[in-house]
Each structure stands twice: as structure tokens, then as C-alpha cells.
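Notes on consecutive records. When two proteins share a document, each keeps its own sequence and its own C-alpha cell line. Never mix them. Below: protein one.
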Amino acid sequence: MPDRPVLAVGDAELGELRTRLAGTRWPAPWPVTGWAAGTDPGELRRLVAHWASGYDWRAHEAAINALPHHFADIAGTPVHYLRFDGEAPDALPIILTNGWPSSFLELIGLAQRLATPSEHGGSAADSFTVIVPSLPGFAFSPQRPSLTDPVQTHELWHLLMHEELGFSRYAAHDGDLGAGITSRLAEAHPDALAGIHLMAVASPVAYDEGSLTAPERPTSARWRPGRRRRARTSTSRAPGRSPWPTAWPTRPPGCSPGSSRSTARGATAAGTCPRGSATTSC
């Protein structure tokens, strides 16, 4: 745990922000109402007024500082992460990765429910030890100086889980940009991954065309150009910044729509998930 708060925004900075919000130059009214031509002007004014005078930054700052923060140097890259220890002694480790534009904060509610299910109507025996890292360039993990660093983010995550934290086997859950990272992680280290849960599916780095079935080959041919473009953009690197989220969603990992899912203990259970999710056992 750090010996000082990870966030300490000065009063002058907060005052300057409030001044800029209060001095917003509003556009002339558009000849339509509501959301017909973009953001509802009344709703936007309400939000700006809340940020300028109603939002209690200090309360949120204190809540963020109270989280279980840790920092590690992974292959020369500083990595920030949260650790929530599972309440069961044999809790399976799991790493959760946020998407873009977002931050580790969106995963706090989910992490707490996974680590301490008995506090949320579940059983302590089903707990996980949850690791929530910050992507490079997001929040407290600094942006990497080069886009050509040989250690990509999925390898940073494996080094964090395996070398830094000593987990020989673990699970992973992600969506959006994080789903691409987890997909690469599972491809690179299948023996270390107990299972992955994705809310988006990334294209594989490579695959054997000869393994496709006859019905699959025409579809693969049609999608091959787009797959290559997405593979280039769904990179394991994250050289950007992300605003704080406005909500902390708590979708449970480990399920797929209308099918069975692999659980942490190797059993299967019926489960449903939001549309677009997918579960894979490695």
C-alpha cells in the first residue's frame, strides 16, 4: 500500500475548475427541443451546475484513496493495481481490465462482490482474489514512452499475476479494449488461464485455416480483411488517457447467453449474461 494518498488535488485547482464551469459560454438555442439535435441544453446546464457547485470532490477523493492500491515495476513499466483478497483461503485469482474510455474505478463494485460474496448474498466459498490493474496511460499507470515496447500489455498482466504476485493459475474478465488484452493473454499463456470471460470478442493473432469447417470457410473469407484491420486497432497497448467513469457496473463474469458456463471450481452452471458476452475455458 502507498504511504501517501494517490490523489491530492489542491484547492486552487478545484477553484479554477469551478470558475471555468461557471463561465461556460452557452451556444444560441437550436430550433429544436430536447435531444433532437444533440445533448439536451437543459440537461447539460443541470450537469454543469452540479459539477460547479453540487459535486463533492473531496468525498470521492477520500473514497478513491481508501481503495487497496498497490504499485509494481513490471519489466521496467510502472503498473498500478488494486488487490481485493478473497474471503476463502483457496480463492481463485482473477484479473479484471477496464475498457476505453474508462478506468479501474468502473470495476470496483464487481471486484468487491467477487472478493466478498458473503456480504452480497453469496457464499464465501465462491470468492475470488481480485486484481484490478490500471492500463498504461490510464489513471495511475503512466503512459508508456513508446508504441514499440516489446512487452505488450497482456504480457505485463501475466508478469504481474505470475511473477509479481505468485499466482500459478488465474482467470480473467474484460470488455471493450480489455477484451482484446485478455484474448491475447489467453492465446499466449493458455496453461496459466483457468478461464476467460469476454464482453467483446477479439480476432486471434493467427489460426489454421485448415481447421475451419466447410460452413465456416466462406464466412472467414468475407471477414478476413476486417479482421486484420481490427487486429491492428485492438492492440494490447493502451497509450491514452481516460476520464473517470460515472458509474461502477457490476456484471458478474463467467456466463454466456442461454448456455452453460465454467465456474472457478471446474463445474458448470446455467447462466445468462448481457448480450455480447462470451465465456471461454482455456
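Protein two starts on the next line and is unrelated to protein one.
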Amino acid sequence: MCSRNPSVRRRSILRPRNISCTSHIDRARLSLLTATKPRHGTQALIAALDVHTGQVLAECRDRRTQDDLVSFMERVAAAYPDKQVHVVWDNLNTHRAQAVWQAFNARHDKRFRFYFTPLHASWVNQIELWFARYTRRVLRHASHTSTAHLRERTGRFVSEHNQAARPFKWSFRGYPLQSGTS
């Protein structure tokens, strides 16, 4: 479970589509141009990944508040009515309100288990793989003219993803043990 704030931006007229930078100064100047694109608003994308099927529940919101997250989690609870649900969260402030999540869990017969990734280890959460794919295919180099346009493209991406959903083949073998001797 994670949320992101993709922004809606229009491509800058000053940046040609296929530009090749020949020096460090050109690259730096180009990054300044892309940072000054006019923004048309942002959206908070809240998503949940079913690691067994690869299916994603996602929702765009105007803001990312505790109430928005609770509302989304109610949708998750409705999608999995009689199953145990394991939720892996990063350390976002809206995830840390213990009383809110204890009350939520009590309303849903204690079916939810919440786990938190260690600090700076959100890559452990498989939804991050989906967010990376979303970023590459929907946000990067895109020209969204409004928040409605971004929501429409996001909804289409989620729908297309779910039609061909498969679980991620994700593994991490770890780092070799470091001994103090050379």
C-alpha cells in the first residue's frame, strides 16, 4: 500500500522532443527548463497490489490525508471480504496512526495485519515495482493537460494492467556478509 503525488505538467515549448546534450552545462540548462514547466495540479495516487494475482486497486485523490487512506482501505476490505489481508507499508505519516488502524481492524473482524518496511527500504514493498512501471508508462515525458486527463490516463493504465496481471517475480538474495577482517 503506498501513495504518490504524480503531477500534471505540460511539455515546455523550450524543450524540443529529441534533444541531445553534448556537455554537462547543456544537461544542467535542460534540467532547469524542464523544472519550469507549468503545472496544472497534482493528484495523490493510492494503490494496493494483490501479490498472488498481480491485480491492483488504485484511486486518484486530490489530497493524501488519513481520511482518504481509510476510505481507500474500506475499498480494499470490500474487495477481500472474508480473507486475511496483509498490508505492507512504508513509514508515511498517514500509516502510523495506531488508533485509527486499530479501530479500522476492529470494524473488519481483525482480518488486517499491518507491517512496516524499515526506514529507507521502501523497495522491499512490491507495490513499488508497479509504481515504477506506472511512472515510466504514464508520467515520464507526458503532457497531461488537467487533473481529469491524468486521472483518465491513470485509470486506463490500471485497467490495462489488471487485464494482463501477473504476480511479480521478485527476489532479493541479500548482500554478502561483511567481516571486519581483510
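For the record: The beta strands are 2-4, 7-9, 39-42, 44-49, 56-61, 85-89, 112-116.
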